[in-house]
Amino acid sequence: MKIGFFVGCNTAFNRPDLEQAVRYALPALGVELDNLDGQSCCPSWGTLPSVDVAGWCAVGARNLALAEEKGLDIVTVCGSCYGSLAEAKYKLDHDPELKTRVNELLRNIGREYKGTSQVRLAHYYLDHELGPDRIREALKYKLDGFTIALQPGCHSLWPSKVYFDKEEDTFHPRVLKEMCEALGATVGYYTRLLDCCGMGAMRSADMEKSFHLVEKKLVSMKEEVNPDLLVTGCSSCLLQFDTAQKFLQKDKKIKFEIPVLHYMQLLALCLGADPEQVAGLAETNVRSFIDRVRKE
Length: 296
Known about the structure:
This protein folds into 2 domains: 2-121, Up-down Bundle (Glutathione S-transferase Yfyf (Class Pi), Chain A, domain 2), CATH 1.20.1050; 141-294, Rossmann fold. Helix content is 49%, strand content 9%. The strands form 2 sheets. A 4-stranded parallel sheet has the order 2-1-3-4, with helices on both faces. A 4-stranded parallel sheet has the order 6-5-7-8, sandwiched between helices. Helix 3 crosses helix 4 (79-94), helix 3 (53-68) packs across helix 5 and helix 6 (122-129) crosses helix 8. The mean pLDDT is 92. The two termini are 35 Å apart. It has helices spanning 9-14, 16-28, 53-68, 79-94, 96-107, 122-129, 132-138, 175-181, 201-205, 207-224, 235-250, 263-270, 275-279, 286-294, and strands at residues 2-5, 32-34, 74-76, 119-121, 147-151, 186-187, 229-232, 260-262. The protein is globular and about 55 Å long.
């Protein structure tokens, strides 16, 4: 199995430990990664998609063309990248005039968008291509006795029509839950599961409102689940929950902390990866959780 790894700006610049987790976990499960040399920003929401649809789709199509030329699909760990690339692809595949315009732009750099490669989000890709049983068989460490709360992320769910990998019921998502259960964990439900984390444009425009969304979600999961760990499938959600808690604690909005990891980081750790390599940049105290898992 081989797939193109679309790293994304958030992961590359802010959480390279997450990138290392992907580079450890997928090969350990028999998936070869292609670096998609020359990849650029997706581009993310709040930038080009807001002002120039053809320009947005052209940048996305260029990234997709890198994979198409190698006969590969794309996998990413960022919900924003997943949403932007998948929606651009959907528009191109359903709007012939837009596709013609985009290919006119790409012709200037000697490339063409054909629509032959799919965009995959890491935990969906693992679920659909390997399945929970394959994951269980490869584990060195299991999460028996640990309780997890989830943050699926908006862009992994909606708009569902644009995605190759999707939930059967976006209001009752199951994939991230089942993939965490494959690691041995108990996954708790809380009422604000589907709420937005407030990352992206909201955090850039109004941090107070953004952090208020985080606070409501954290309080809900603490009171209803009391998890050992919060797990997300999106790098943007990871950044939000991992960095916001210290501000909320400082402002006395919360009196607790919930360690946060991306699913691919947690998977890499359960497969035996070095914690410093795949989770060393966490601001929440994930080390105590890891020590408990490994009984150190």
